[in-house]
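Me: I'm a chemist; would you kindly supply a protein sequence with its structure tokens?

Assistant:
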Amino acid sequence: MASVTFSPITASSSSSSLLSTVSAGQSSVRLPGFRGLKVRPRNVARSIGSIRTSPSSRVSRGARIVCEAQDTAVDVAPVTDATWQSLVLESDLPVLVEFWAPWCGPCRMIHPVIDELSKQYAGKLKCFKVNTDDSPSIATQYGIRSIPTVIIFKNGEKKDAVIGAVPKTTLTTSIEKFL
């Protein structure tokens, strides 16, 4: 079995660029060296592919970043501490409640599924969502330790819970038990 030995990397400077020589036994390879970061003044226009941007069209460093995940579940109404009793516990129909948070990736994955279920079971099941960041007391009351968690209530009582981003069929099976 042949063995290859590497010698330490040595750097040599040339007038046009910094190159590193890496030797491996009898052969050597010249690689470009690292020069550091290039700082471009703010007032210089730059081009990205075929798009040319000017400094005035750039977003300022202090721009506000808004998480759009809050708007992904548009069909399912939110529930807060103030509306929990009337919308969920006193409902005449079974209620599906999704516990979620805007920063939760799996929650964003399950939002469209909950939207579909709310349309599919319209008139038979009410669907709501609880942002656990905005209403932590509800999540604590029902022992929510991970999100997304979907709980089905009937006559004001917790009947079933499904934890995680699960397929629509899993939620449908759970819903059908209480209709």
DSSP finds four helices and ten strands in the chain.
